[in-house]
Structure formats: C-alpha cells, structure tokens
C-alpha cells in the first residue's frame, strides 16, 4: 500500500494550492480518506475527511476555505486549499482507512508554507 502526497509549496497569504494523494495497493473506492496537518511544535491534527460515498467533514478552522474531493477512477484524493493563511503552514498528510476516521495507511506528507 502506498499513499503519495504532492502539491505542496510556498504561497502568499490569500493564495491557493491543490494537494493530491495518489493511492495504490488498496481498494480505493471502499476507503475513507483524511487529510491531516502538523505544524512545527504541534501535534498532527485532522483537517477534513471524505467517506467512500463522498460525504465530507471539515474542522472549523478550514471550513469554507478547503475542499476535499476524490476521483475513484484515478485513485486520487484532493485537498483544494483557498484563502490560505500563515497559520495554515504545516506538513500535510493523507491517510486511508476502512472506517470513517480510520488511519490504516499514511502518506509521506507534503509541505505547505504560507507567507504573510
């Protein structure tokens, strides 16, 4: 099983990035996926998730700015980040599980840095 996260980078406040998480070795359509982030000196925390049926959940700090989607044909999950703020700076990880909130598998992380 491999989850390959990509799409991070350096962006100015107010900008956007689209992160991707390409999965292999799992039955993609049956899994739920979560995006997490870890800022320096802080614990890793949930950003949002998408269930196998497509329903989504977001934490309050990103609601209305971030959107999670999935493409079952491409075995890829996306995190569209808009109106980025410096406090969004973190390493972003994707995780896959067979139940909502499950984290059976982790990707390697992609760095997002938002400058003020």
Report on the structure:
Strands 2, 4, 5, 6, 9, 10 and 11 form a 7-stranded mixed beta sheet that branches. Strands 1-3-8-7 form a 4-stranded antiparallel beta sheet, with no helix packed on it. It has no helices and 11 strands. It starts with a strand and ends with a strand. By secondary structure, it is mostly beta strands.
Taken from the alpha-carbon principal axes, the silhouette is globular
Total helical elements: 0
Helix/strand class: mainly beta
Compute the average pLDDT: 97
Q: Which regions contain 5 or more consecutive residues with pLDDT less than 50?
A: none
Strand content: over 45%
Beta-strand segment tally: 11
Give Rg in angstroms: 13 Å
List the helices and strands in order. EEEEEEEEEEE
Give a short account of the largest sheet.
Answer: 7 strands, mixed
Distance between the first and last residues' Cα: 37 Å
Helix content percent band: under 10%
What are the SSEs and their pairings?
Layout (H helix, E strand, L loop, with lengths): L1 E5 L2 E4 L4 E8 L7 E7 L6 E6 L5 E3 L7 E6 L4 E6 L8 E8 L7 E2 L3 E6 L1
Parallel strand pairs: 2-11
Antiparallel strand pairs: 1-3, 3-8, 4-5, 4-9, 5-6, 7-8, 9-10, 9-11
């Amino acid at each position: 099983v491999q989850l390959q996260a990509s799409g991070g980078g350096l962006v100015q406040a107010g900008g956007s990035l689209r992160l991707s998480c390409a999965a292999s070795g799992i039955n993609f359509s049956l899994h739920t996926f979560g995006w997490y982030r870890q800022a320096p000196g802080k614990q890793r925390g949930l950003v949002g998730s998408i269930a196998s049926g497509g329903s989504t959940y977001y934490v309050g700090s990103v609601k209305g700015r971030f959107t999670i989607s999935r493409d079952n044909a491409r075995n890829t999950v996306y995190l569209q980040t808009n109106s980025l703020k410096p406090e969004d700076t973190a390493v972003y990880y994707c995780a896959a599980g067979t139940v909502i909130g499950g984290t059976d598998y982790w990707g390697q992380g992609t760095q997002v840095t938002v400058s003020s």
